[in-house]
Structures are given as structure tokens and as C-alpha cells.
Specification:
Layout (H helix, E strand, L loop, with lengths): L7 H19 L3 H22 L3 H9 L8 E7 L1 E2 L2 E7 L5 E2 L2 E3 L6 H13 L1 E13 L13 E13 L7 E8 L13 H12 L6 E2 L1
Parallel strand pairs: 1-7, 6-9
Antiparallel strand pairs: 1-5, 2-3, 3-4, 3-8, 6-7
Helix pairs in contact: 1-2, 2-3
């Protein structure tokens, strides 16, 4: 099924990379290994041409993916204080997003989001409600990403700590809905932020999911 927010070439490249990764995981036949490596190379060339990225970099990225191909999981903490939402400033692009990042192996979603919020904002929190599970490719994130990603947004309550910085973020501040800073659209969209304010106003709303 083609995403409304990603170009067709990216969909093809992701599918080819997934086929190659799964094939290389399970096949024992040397000729099939060569065929799947060729498919992976084609996927890398499509990705490199479409994203204006060196093909060697894409080849290395794909070669590091092992095992059965599944979506990656990005967790984000949604934290309010006095009707303002907590955002952190990304050093990578100088824009703002919800605190969060990749879930680690052996972590539950609760553990992952509480860890990420602490690392990126300095606040200790308690995860209280799953707000949304979104397929990144179905939302207007820019730029596109070479792998399939599920984004999990979890409401959290502050239990301690204070604003802090780390090697990825350069500040943590609360913003009102009508005074949001420039967002890091690779990580969060204005539409998603707006939806989380709806959850704040209507606590009984069910979890959103694609």
C-alpha cells in the first residue's frame, strides 16, 4: 500500500531492502545470497539517487541491518504543565520536538520513554497513557527515512528533575499551543502536537493509531 506522504521510489527502495534483508537472513544457497545482495545494491542505488546521498553510505547502512526486517520503534513523551507542552531543542537542526528516540532492546515502551525523557529533558517522569501509535510514512515528516518506523506517543507526568541538556538536545522548555517554536518536522509535526492538546482537553479520548 503506497503512502500518501512518501514518493514511490522510496516505497520501492524500502521494499527491495526488506526483501534482501530477509532473504540474506534465511537463505543458505550461495547463488541466492548473491541475488539478494544484488537486490540490496539496487535498493541502495535507488535510495542514493532519490535522496542525493552517497551510495556507499546507503550500502553500509543497509549491510548493517540483520535478521527479519521489521519496523523500527521511536518513542516520544507527551508532557504538559499548566496547559503548555514540553519540547526539547535538537542540536542537529536547531528545532524543537517532543523528548524521545529509539526504543532499546530489552526495554518496554514505558521504560524506553521514561529513559528518553530523562536523558533529553532532565525531567523524571511516570508514563500514564498511550496516546498514539503512528506509521511515520503516513504523516508529513521531512525528510523521508530509509526504514519503516512506528512512532509511539505516551503521556507522561513529571515526578522530579529539572530542565537539562545532553549531547543531542540544547534545552527543554514548555510552550503554549498558540506559541509553538519551529518544529523538527523529521521528528514531530504540527498536526500531531495539535492532536495531543486535544487529548489534554479531552482525557477520555481513545488511543489514536494508523
Amino acid at each position: 500500500m503506497t503512502s500518501q506522504n512518501e514518493p514511490q521510489w522510496l516505497e520501492w527502495a524500502k521494499q527491495l531492502q526488506s526483501i534482501a534483508q530477509i532473504g540474506l537472513t534465511y537463505t543458505k544457497d550461495q547463488y541466492d545470497i548473491e541475488r539478494f545482495e544484488a537486490i540490496r545494491k539496487i535498493a541502495a542505488e535507488i535510495m542514493a539517487r532519490g535522496s542525493d546521498t552517497p551510495v556507499d553510505k546507503i550500502n553500509e547502512l543497509f549491510a548493517n541491518q540483520k535478521g527479519y526486517a521489521t519496523p523500527k520503534v521511536d518513542v516520544r513523551g507527551v508532557i504538559f504543565r499548566e496547559n503548555a507542552i514540553l519540547l526539547v531543542k535538537e542540536l542537529e537542526d536547531g528545532r524543537w520536538t517532543l523528548p524521545g528516540g529509539w526504543a532499546d532492546i530489552l526495554e518496554s515502551p514505558r521504560e524506553a520513554v521514561e529513559r528518553e525523557v530523562l536523558e533529553e529533558s532532565g525531567f523524571q517522569t511516570r508514563a500514564t497513557k498511550l496516546l498514539s501509535v503512528f506509521d511515520r510514512s503516513k504523516h508529513p515528516h521531512i525528510p523521508p527515512y530509509p526504514f519503516h518506523i512506528y512512532k509511539i506517543f505516551i503521556r507522561c507526568e513529571i515526578t522530579g528533575g529539572a530542565p537539562a541538556t545532553n549531547n543531542e538536545t540544547g534545552g527543554a522548555e514548555f510552550f503554549y499551543e498558540d506559541a509553538l517554536p519551529e518544529l523538527s518536522v523529521s521528528r514531530i509535526t504540527a498536526g500531531q502536537i495539535s492532536r495531543f492538546f486535544e487529548h489534554l482537553r479531552q482525557p477520555d479520548l481513545p488511543t489514536d493509531f494508523d
